[in-house]
Amino acid sequence: MNFFDALEDAWDELWHHRMRTVLTLLGMIFGVGAVIAMLSIGEGAEREALDLIDEMGLRNVLVHAREVDQQQLKEIREHSIGLSLRDVEVAQETLPFIDKVSAEKQIKTFIVFSRFSQSDASVYGVTPSYFELSGFKLAQGRMFTTQDDKDYAQVAVLGARAAERLFPEGNAVGQLFKVNHLWLEVIGVIKDKELRKEEFEGIKLGSEKNRVFIPFNTALKKFKFPQLDNEIDTFRVQVAEGVDPVQAASSLNHLLDRRHGEMDDFEIVIPAKLMDQHRQTRRIFTIVMSCVAGISLLVGGIGIMNIMLATVLERTKEIGLLRAVGARRRDIRNLFMVESFTVAAIGGLLGIVLGFVIAGVIASFADWSVGFSFNAILLSVGVCALVGLGFGLYPALLASRMDPIIALQRE
Questions:
Q1: How far is CA 129 from the centre of its chain?
Q2: Backbone torsions φ then ψ of 81, nearest 5 degrees
Q3: Distant-in-sequence, close-in-space partners of 116: CB < 8 Å, separation ≥ 6
Q4: What is the DSSP letter of 240?
Q5: The pairing of beta strand 112-113 with beta strand 118-119
Q6: Longest Cα separation, the chain
Q7: What pLDDT, in 10s, does the model give residues 289-309?
Q8: Cβ of 98: how many Cβ atoms within 10 Å?
Q9: Is the dihedral of CA 116, 119, 121, 127 positive or negative?
Q10: What are the sequence ranges of the domains in the chain?
Q11: d(CA 278, CA 336)
């Protein structure tokens, strides 16, 4: 009997006991389905995390001015002037691993409007390098230059949503709009990144969609700020390739601590460290789900062994007859191994379908990203096949070792 003959015989036997076969398959179906769903969700989370981290820059280190109440701020200002451009300059001059730096300052706005509409966009003064370090790309026009910054140019680059609100008819570039008392000319519009989430590990992302960016010196020169306010709200540094951002952040933190008189008036965010935290969380999730899937597969394997042992007992006389007409022990063993493999294969295929359905349902209701991969399918089917062969081996050996005379005599 060749493999295909054994496969046909196995299918006939399983079809003959349909209800028993279905009940046996359930463990394999749920086990493989859990593996597929788990790996698909994990793959989607990894891709989404990479997109979100790309928003902040994996080689970047961000320094934010810490928000404190007015009383604390007065006490802090006795020892520290807060984050300033001088901090950025000193960091770049002192720390050799820093490649590029940028700074930003939010402007308190009362009104942002054009002749077409109003907008609730936030307005920021930023240095020209900000766009490159943030990974922004243009949909229209150009970014402002160092010369624009030096000349206190009244120009602006708009986020996609801000441009849509202020100029609903399109063609924002070259148009004028007003922020508080100041008229500005639109010279560029940032391309929308279409992020699924606007927050990663507690850090808000994607807010550039509804922002207006103007040159940093223009902001400082032509807008008023509270007397005790920080000169800049945030600055980010990009470390050189091959430098560990965590170690770079430690050196930067030490430098700023000394400049700020050890006052706790700033905080540092390390995108690379956030990525590590995300992967650690995902690793724990994967381990837990793997245990659940493993238990389901184990139950499924026990079910396969159970049905195969029952089949061996039911087909004892058939086994004796096959041996009597010349079937070798190897033929009998292979016959039952193919049957157990068939059960596992069917369970695996149905489990793949179930896994895709589960992942799709979770993605719809929980708003999670899902990424299907060939590796997930290959791994789950491979594990399923091994479980089928492993748990089917003992019944197959038991059948192959039967004495044909005793087998023929058994009722």
A1: 27
A2: -85, 0
A3: 166, 167, 168, 169
A4: P
A5: antiparallel
A6: 105
A7: 777 777 777 777 787 787 778
A8: 20
A9: positive
A10: 3-53+277-409, 58-269
A11: 46
